Amino acid sequence: MDAWFRQDGYQVRLEWGPDGVTALGADCAVLVIVDVLSFTTSVDIAVGRGARIMPLRWKDEAAAANARRAGLPVGETFGKELSLRPSSLTAIEAGTTLALPSANGATLCDLASKTGAHVLTGCLRNADAVAARARELAGDRPVGIIAGGERWLLPGDPLRPCWEDLLGAGAIVSALPDGRSPEAEMAARTYRATGASLLHECVGAKELIAAGYPDDVRLATEVNVSTATPLLRDGFLS
Ligand SMILES: O=C(O)[C@H](CS(=O)(=O)O)OP(=O)(O)O
Q: Which region is the signal sequence (predicted)?
């Protein structure tokens, strides 16, 4: 891949989705996956309470079956039981291990784990803490922020860049030092201009509110309320 697609020469880089993992994973010592609605917000809440999350690739029935065989609960997308909904995890018990499939965040974690980079997950709730951990893990090598994006429900499953992940990524970039690529700088400037103020009006938020999960949006909108820095090790975020 040509060097400019890897945002060569910058210490803080930003790209979108699975192809972004491929592009930035080549050089970056750390990849930070950002999927604000909802996977990485859910991970922050669970890990912040002392639980750990096993990310599962979306629709990977074999991985889900393996997790069940190992006695792990497997979260659904929707539901009041432990699920992908952040609001279902606010009382998760310390020591719980939850296998969590998600279309975007969990799938990206799995992809990123194959690049050799350290893999962190971040969101608005833990942006400053995750940025500090990324910096510490990276040393003098570059950090790549992956804005997860969502999916258009259309043939080919195309990526839909989304507001909430631009903001989450921008919050993390804002807490990292200079040496930002233009792509990373754009996200930081957007975040600095708006904060989380418009998050509850974006497409993903409206979708969740209409589905009856306004608390998910409220939890995702809280900025720097958490010091959890979920790091993927041996298939678990903790
Ligand atoms: O949290 C979500 O609502 C989405 C579900 S889906 O992608 O819209 O089916 O998952 P996530 O992977 O957390 O973006």
A: none
User: 0.90 cut: is pTM over it?
Assistant: yes
Q: Which two tokens stand for residue 213?
A: 């999960």
Q: Cβ(165) to ligand 1 under 6 A?
A: no
* Residue matched to tokens 């606010």: 90
* 162 Cβ inside 6 Å of ligand 1: no
- Give the integer Cα–Cα distance in Å for 49 and 166: 26
Assess whether the C-beta atom of 102 lies below 6 angstroms from ligand 1: yes
Which mutation among 16, 34, 35, 56 tests ligand 1's pocket best, with the greatest number of atoms within 8 A of CB?
A: 35
Q: Which ipTM was obtained for this model?
A: 0.93
Non-local (6+) Cβ contacts of 28 within 8 A are: 13, 115, 117, 138, 141, 142, 143, 144
d(CA 209, CA 230): 26
Q: Measured from the CB, is residue 82 less than 6 Å from ligand 1?
A: no
58 Cα: distance to centroid of ligand 1 (angstroms) = 10
Give 30-50 pLDDT, tens digit per residue: 999 999 999 999 999 999 999
Domain boundaries 9-223, corresponding CATH code? 3.90.1560.10
Among residues 94, 104, 135, 97, the alpha carbon closest in space to that of 41 is found at 104
User: Is pLDDT of 13 > 90?
Assistant: yes
